[in-house]
Every structure is written in structure tokens, then in C-alpha cells.
Predict the 3D structure of the following.
Amino acid sequence: MKKLFIISILFMGIFTQANENMITKITNSVNEDSDYKVTTLYQYSNEEDTKGKRSLFYFVKPAKKRVFVGEPIRISFKLRKRAFLYIVTISRKDGGAYLLFPNNSQSYNLFNPKTYYVIPERSAKYRLVSDSRGKETIYVIASTKKQDFEGLRKIFSSKKSIISKNIEATLKDIFIVPVEREKARVDIRKIKIKVR
């Protein structure tokens, strides 16, 4: 059994229905490598100034190509527009859905465009670590609208919940549906990382 754990763990809420014509569900791989794969799950925008680009990310990927058991997993990214970042995972050990970022150690999650970032920073008081070999799945969400941190913690703290069984639809319900009547952009990426 394997799990991805955070050494200062935290967890988070909201549901509704979405306007499907503004959501692009994408199943093709953005980047595939033998050690990781990044897939765009959803891109949503009801903003007029997107210039044909719904993506909030220039890129998002593991900071290091190869990850070994016990070694920190760090996510690097660069945004096209100022946005809030969220990172969620499903634990293989208990089946729970967990919010890894933001967290109690690093609650500030608003990032500027055209700047290279890595989460967690080397100086962070927490680490994302896999305790066994296999594939870890991490969801990285960028949104121009801030989500309620405490609400998200409540949603992503239940073990073996229905959330983890249908995580992709749940992420759409949590991050896209609430902003469908506002000017907003949301980009949801799935990263599979091979841990050696």
C-alpha cells in the first residue's frame, strides 16, 4: 500500500451545477514522460479577454523528473494570469481525498503571472512525500476566484469518501460550478508521478 502524505496535513467546501458550454473537458495528454504524465482535465472561462486561451498555466509539472520513495515531491508551474492554486490528492492507503495546498503552514495561495514557482518551497515547513513505490496522482487547480479554505478542508478530510471515488467530477463541482455566473477562469490538471 502506498500513500502520499503531508507532514503538516490539512484538509477543505461547496457544490452546485455547471454551465457545460463554457467548460472544455480535455482528455489528451499535455506532457508524457516515462516518469510522469500531465493531463488537462477541465478548462473553464467566461472571461472575454482570454484571446482564445482558456489555460491559466504556461506549464505545470513535477519539479524533478525522477522521484524516489521518501524524497520530497515538488510541483513547478508558471501562470498566464494571477490565480489561486490548490493541490489535492487521493491517498492509496485510506482512500481519502486530501487538500495538500494551501495548508496551515502555507495558507497564502495567490500567485502572479509569468513567474516560475515551486510548491512546496525548499524553505517550507512541510514536505509532500511518497512512502512507497508506484504512481502518485496529484490534482493541481488554478482559479481566478478564491475558494473558502475552511470549507475545502471539510470536504477533503473524509476517508474513503464518495469524493475520492469520483474525484474529477467533484473537483469540477467544487471549483467550476460556483463561479459560473462570475467572470472567472479555472484550469484543472492531473499529474501522475512514478515513484521509484
Remarks:
- Residues 106 and 123 are 11 Å apart (CA to CA).
